[in-house]
Write a structure and sequence with these properties.
10 strands, alpha/beta, six-stranded mixed beta sheet, four-stranded antiparallel beta sheet, globular
Length: about 260
């Protein structure tokens, strides 16, 4: 089976000849359809840079990234924009909802840009809203919603176009523990029941314990990998903590 994501020996440098920083150092891995992958590492490890390269927000210095067998490192600017709209979904820490639009309009915006018919837009928005249990907030504006509701609306916006890959950057970072758990339960259900393919960067071991496989990044390289297998989430959480200890992170990086 062809992987949905293939990262092949990528490197990312910042700066100039006199002051070069290698943020990503020869990283390679694959993600199959329906996987839920977590990426962890201490601050400055390169995990967000790696996500940004996969998201086409940043460009690699060398190596290749293929999504659905298409080499995105070879795409030009206009082609990248179209690819991003059609193939990728994004969940950000700070929601990135438009304050002047209702939840329904925020979710529908990507479909409107794709010039979908209004009836098709309504059907897709309602479908994803039901999956994430946010039908009752569709007519509300962001200022009328809780943090958890806003993040689920943001998740619905990421899912509504049926992207090949969903990229989540610290999705629970701005939420309290109750809202975090509700969001993660929703994301887990989307992964398990609808085979959504998810790549999530997080510093939080509890959040990471929802993933099925975790890549640990240290100094720009893959330091270790954990596969959940038949572990309970609690047992997987404990294994994550053990690896974080080996990485040299303190408790503020893992709890």
């Amino acid at each position: 089976m062809t992987p949905i994501l293939e990262v092949a020996n990528i490197e990312k440098y910042y700066g100039n000849k006199g002051n070069l920083t290698k943020a990503v150092d020869r990283v390679s891995f694959q993600v199959e359809t329906g996987e839920f992958i977590g990426i962890m590492g201490p601050s400055g490890s390169g995990k967000t840079t790696l996500l940004n390269c996969i998201a086409t927000i940043d460009t690699v210095t060398s190596g290749h990234i293929r999504i659905n067998n298409k080499d995105i490192t070879a795409l030009k600017k206009n082609s990248l924009s179209q690819f991003r709209r059609e193939e990728l979904g994004f969940i950000f820490q700070d929601f990135n909802l438009l304050d002047t639009l209702t939840a329904y309009e925020n979710i529908a915006l990507a479909l409107t840009i794709q010039k979908k018919k209004p009836s098709e837009i309504k059907q897709q928005v309602m479908s994803v809203a039901q999956k994430l249990d946010i039908v009752d907030v569709l007519q509300k504006y962001p200022y009328q919603m809780s943090g958890g509701q806003k993040q689920r609306v943001a998740s619905a916006r990421a899912l509504v176009t049926n992207p090949s890959l969903i990229l989540a950057d610290e999705p629970t970072g701005a939420l309290d523990s109750k809202s975090s758990r509700a969001l993660l339960d929703s994301i887990e259900r989307l992964n398990e029941e609808y085979r959504a393919t998810i790549l999530m960067v997080t510093h939080d071991a509890f959040t990471a314990s929802y993933a099925k496989r975790i890549l640990f990044i240290k100094d720009g390289r893959i330091f270790n990998e954990l596969i959940r297998g038949n572990d309970t989430r609690k047992a997987f959480f404990n294994r994550i903590i053990e690896v974080e200890t080996l990485l040299g992170g303190d408790s503020s990086n893992v709890l």
